[in-house]
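FAQ

Q: What does a record look like?
A: Structure on top, sequence underneath. For example:
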């Protein structure tokens, strides 16, 4: 509870407006404690402190034409407010597809006396609750579509906290939307069968579940915003190769040949070093150059490397699928490889023309993906895979 000026009080909402009966009951209990609602939000409600008294609260559905493009009005029509006022009901505020009315006269008639007619008035609320749930599933499907091919495992390993917060928020929002659908359709069925609503329903039963779910969802959303901003700030961390001091746990172009390497300075030759809770070392390496060897044609190629030193061997294997799917132009079926000493697993892929080749090596907690170009077919897996495996294995010792 937070006091601003001695008269205004904020309380956490224990149930959404879609739980019509429980929400009305809660507001009635607050009035009995001397707290009279002024503004009803999804998370917080603003009350005015006064003398405790009996007040009835009723949530009525907004009366719309029923079109798909209808927008929710912020307050009822003036004629409706005037009519309800004559019977002792005063408009308080709006919340989502509902208008909140209050009455202090115990003899005043109810706003709704025909349950089936009231059920029909909930059409907009039912439709909105249903589309909120469908929209949540569409967001989840879109998230898997955008990140499910070549990115899902990598996002989890590279940004575990952000990934967990994203899905915690999505599933939390889906849970809340599903509760809204359940409660509004349950009330509609009850009214449609001719049973009057229970205005004094026990709201304590589900209050804790709703508040915890709402808190987790909002907390996850806030963390997503903070972590996403931090990720954007740190995105440009690549450095030129000449600025890096130290050995690399994989073979470079110079390691692959005894000839002369002429690097092409076109922004390709960079190294990015990152880390996460699940991968203490993450390296992304890019190199482009021409290798000159006696008696052979110059090899003009590029080399792209992704290296992960993870917390567990299963994480290294978990990344294999994404490291391959990250290159959509490669064929899905692995190609044969010569024996590679010291490797727990090895996979080789090529595009249809054999120009692009990818080698993925797994050893313990480490995984390495190497992509290079082989225009004339002379630098194939039989020639380079043993060399990549030799340097990769030696880096573990």
């Amino acid at each position: 509870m937070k006091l601003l000026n001695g008269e205004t009080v904020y309380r956490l909402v224990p149930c959404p407006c879609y739980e019509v009966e429980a929400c009305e009951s809660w507001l009635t209990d607050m009035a009995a404690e001397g707290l009279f609602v002024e503004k009803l939000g999804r998370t917080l409600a603003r009350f005015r402190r006064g003398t405790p008294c009996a007040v009835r609260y009723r949530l009525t559905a907004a009366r719309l034409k029923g079109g798909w493009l209808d927008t929710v009005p912020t307050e009822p029509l003036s004629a409706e407010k005037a009519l309800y006022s004559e019977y002792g009901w005063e408009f308080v505020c709006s919340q989502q597809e509902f208008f909140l009315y209050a009455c202090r006269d115990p003899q005043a008639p109810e706003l709704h006396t025909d349950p089936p007619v009231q059920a029909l008035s909930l059409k907009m609320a039912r439709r909105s609750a249903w589309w909120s749930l469908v929209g949540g599933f569409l967001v989840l499907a879109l998230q898997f579509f955008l990140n499910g091919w070549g990115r899902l495992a990598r996002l989890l390993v590279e940004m575990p906290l952000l990934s967990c917060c994203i899905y915690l928020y999505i599933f939390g929002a889906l849970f809340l939307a599903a509760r809204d659908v359940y409660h509004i359709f349950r009330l509609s069925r009850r009214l449609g069968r001719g049973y009057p609503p229970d205005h004094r329903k026990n709201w304590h039963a589900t209050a804790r579940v709703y508040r915890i779910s709402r808190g987790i969802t909002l907390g996850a959303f806030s963390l997503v915003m903070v972590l996403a901003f931090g990720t954007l700030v740190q995105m440009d961390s690549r450095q030129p190769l000449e600025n890096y001091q130290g050995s690399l746990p994989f073979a470079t172009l110079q390691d692959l040949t005894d000839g002369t390497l002429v690097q092409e300075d076109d922004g390709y030759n960079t190294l990015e070093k990152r880390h996460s809770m699940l991968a203490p070392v993450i390296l992304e390496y890019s190199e482009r150059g021409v290798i000159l060897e006696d008696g052979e044609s110059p090899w003009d190629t590029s080399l792209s490397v992704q290296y992960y030193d993870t917390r567990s061997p299963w994480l290294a294997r978990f990344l294999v699928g994404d490291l391959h799917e990250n290159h959509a132009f490669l064929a899905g079926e692995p190609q044969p490889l010569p024996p590679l000493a010291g490797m727990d697993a090895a996979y080789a892929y090529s595009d249809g023309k054999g120009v692009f080749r990818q080698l993925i090596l797994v050893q313990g907690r480490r995984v390495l993906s190497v992509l290079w170009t082989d225009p004339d077919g002379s630098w194939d897996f039989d020639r380079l895979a043993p060399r990549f495996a030799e340097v990769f294995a030696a880096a573990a010792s």
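Q: Is there anything notable about this one?
A: DSSP finds nine helices and 15 strands in the chain.
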